[in-house]
């Protein structure tokens, strides 16, 4: 089945989904973020086929989210997050917050996150970049930005 290409849509959500919009990519990014940088480590952790993992890694490298670095003379490669990839992990952290709240169950979250700056166990908290107040979907007005698709002229 041909995968839908969202890259040309004038929508940042669609464009992001074009990069990570299938189930394996976020899990591959998670593994690399926590230090599983080698193909065999990722494959063993996820139980993913070699073919699918090769495709996912190639896709993420192609989109500039990951970089391949040789670590052996054969050569063998490990994968590291680029700046673009590290910022994409922030999206995963927001997903963690949602999953912890709605899917973790009575036992609580499966993973905790210690903030380096203060040393405390913390959760992601979306804040406005201008005033610092909490910011959620109901707290914003969606406006066309400079990269918005042109709107057709109304008939009449």
UniProtKB/TrEMBL annotation:
One Pfam family linked to the record: HxlR
Keywords, comma-separated and alphabetical: DNA-binding, Transcription, Transcription regulation
All residue ranges annotated as the HTH hxlR-type domain in the record: 11-107
Biological source species: Nocardioides luteus
Molecular functions per Gene Ontology: DNA binding
Signal found in the keyword field: no
PANTHER family (UniProt xref): TRANSCRIPTIONAL REGULATOR, MARR FAMILY, TRANSCRIPTIONAL REGULATORY PROTEIN
InterPro entries given in the database record: HTH_HxlR, WH-like_DNA-bd_sf, WH_DNA-bd_sf
Highest taxon in the source lineage: Bacteria
Protein name as catalogued: Transcriptional regulator
């Amino acid at each position: 089945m041909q995968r839908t290409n969202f890259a040309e849509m004038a929508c940042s959500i669609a464009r992001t989904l074009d990069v990570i919009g299938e189930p394996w990519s976020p899990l591959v990014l998670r593994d690399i973020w926590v230090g599983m940088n080698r193909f065999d480590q990722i494959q063993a952790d996820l139980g993913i086929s070699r073919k699918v993992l090769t495709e996912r890694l190639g896709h993420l490298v192609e989109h500039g989210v990951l970089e391949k670095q040789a670590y052996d003379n054969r050569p063998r490669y490990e994968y590291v997050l680029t700046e673009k990839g590290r910022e994409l992990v922030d999206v995963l952290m927001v997903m963690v917050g949602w999953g912890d709240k709605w899917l973790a169950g009575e036992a609580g979250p499966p993973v905790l996150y210690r903030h380096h700056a203060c040393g405390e166990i913390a959760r992601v908290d979306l804040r406005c970049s201008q005033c610092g107040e909490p910011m959620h979907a109901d707290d914003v007005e969606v406006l066309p930005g400079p990269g918005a698709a042109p709107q057709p002229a109304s008939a009449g």
